[in-house]
Amino acid sequence: MKRLLCLLGLAAGIAQAAVHVDDAKRSVEFKTPPQRVITLAPNLTEFVYAVGAGATLVGTMDTSNYPEEARRVERIGNYQRLDVERILALKPDVVLVWHHGNQGRELGQLEAAGVKLFYIEPRRVDDVADSLTRIGALLGHAKQGAERAAAYRQAFADLRLRYANAAPVSVFFQVWSQPLMTLNGQHLTSDLMAICGGRNVFASLQALAPQISVESVVAANPEVFFTAREFDNGATAWQRTPDGEAFRLWRDFSKLSAVQRGWMFTVSGDLVTRQGPRAIEGAKAFCAMLDEVRRERRHTSGLVTPPSPTQQPKVASRRSP
Fold first, then answer.
1. Which of 23, 27, 172, 272 would disulfide-bridge 282, Cβ 3.0–4.6 Å?
2. 236 lies in which domain range?
3. Is the distance from CB of 110 to CB of 119 less than 8 angstroms?
4. Closest by alpha carbon to 20, among 106, 108, 117?
5. C-alpha 241: how far from its chain's center?
6. Residue 3 falls within a domain, yes or no?
7. Are 132 and 50 a contacting pair, CB within 8 Å?
8. Which controlled-vocabulary keywords does the entry list (predicted)?
9. Dihedral sign from CA coordinates of 194, 196, 199, 202
10. Is the separation of the CB atoms in 188 and 152 below 8 Å?
């Protein structure tokens, strides 16, 4: 009888353990939902709060700035260097990892010390909803994670329906000016622009964030230029900035459509490049900017020649990794 009870107890313990599969296809087992969580990217921090598990967060990156509560969480490093000793001292039950943004050597040190890593890697618009569901389930907030995912999907469905027949606008997203870099069609930012009818002139390039030449931009002649930065206190999501320092490179290219018309915009980087729950706000920002362009285009048609859809932008000889 005693042996039977022991076996039943063992079976119950096994049944209680939950196995979660992360975006690296790794199976990670937890007997109970993690109560001490560290995030290694600001978008992962936003996910934790979005599913209602913010109270479990004990450490995060220097760049985690949203929501406001995240600013008060202990800092454990940045993309250049993680404070491995500090992370171990915080005794996390799990560390949420952004694979393409964190250093492999330091992650190896954490794993060697017995820390459980869980990889989250949303790349496209729809991946964000999946991440909400996955993180909610992992942290014991499955219901709220599922609800947030459903609301996120519905918000994007509504936006897609609204802009289904919008006139296309050719766009260029400038990541950096020195070196000149952009994003291809596989990046979430490109998805957000496309939902509103923005046609990324560099969508077909192979690298996710390729280095390009000035000549390739001139050849593509996009109607609209975008770049990203952070605004003070999050006061605005976007601004029209034809005279902005980020676009100084293009001031002498007066024949470019975007330069002629002043269709050069700066948008909040946290909204449009951070693969997280606020991506819907980033999409709405792009839609608002492109709506402004379409209104003006109706009144200024014929002043400049729009780019041909058959023009193929050229890539610089060196690409970013």
1. 272
2. 166-300
3. no
4. 117
5. 23
6. no
7. yes
8. Signal
9. negative
10. no
Looking at the structure, tell me whether residues 143 and 26 fall in a common domain: yes
34-46 pLDDT per residue, tens: 999 999 999 999 9
* Residues 137 and 258 both lie in one domain: no
Residue 136 and residue 143 in contact, taking contact as beta carbons nearer than 8 Å: yes
Paired strand residues for 180 = 177
- Which residues, in sequence order, are bridge partners of residue 27? 21
- What does the alpha-carbon distance between residue 209 and residue 321 come to, in Å, rounded to a whole number? 8
DSSP string, 282-321: HHHHHHHHHHHHHHHHHHHTTSSPPPPTT--PPBPSS---
Helix (H, G, I), strand (E, B) or coil at 137: helix
Count: domains in the chain: 2
**Predicted TM-score of the model (pTM):** 0.86
6 belongs to a structural domain:
no
Hey, what amino acid is at 286?
F
pLDDT per residue as tens digits for the range 63-95: 999 999 999 999 999 988 999 999 999 999 999
Strands 238-240, 224-229: pairing kind: unpaired
Cα R_g (the chain), whole angstroms? 23
Write out the two tokens for 204: 């077909």
